[in-house]
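Because discrete structure vocabularies remain unfamiliar, we reproduce here a specimen of the format, pairing a chain with its fold in token form:
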Amino acid sequence: VQLQASGGGLVQAGGSLRLSCAVSGRTFGSDEMGWFRQAPGKEREFVAAISWSGGSTYYADSVKGRFTISRDNAKNTVNLQMNSLKPEDTAVYYCAGRRSRIIQYEYWGQGTQVTVSS
């Protein structure tokens, strides 16, 4: 399974970015997909997740109302629209997938850097 994340970059505070994650080697239409991030010197943290159908979404409190996760099962992609970005959103963002909410995330992408300047 390969996950290719893209869309990261440098943006000013208040700006927007859209991350995309393309999944290959697996039909992920039945998997829950998530986004995580890791800032320098900090542990990786959950950002957002979306159920296999897209009918349920979950967000960390720190991004609720600013970030939106979505998926296109026909294209095997999951996206993260990030608005009103803050310097504290600066991190490497990773996409991941799992077959069920009762197990740990099983497969991970390589990450994409997001840097928000003040």
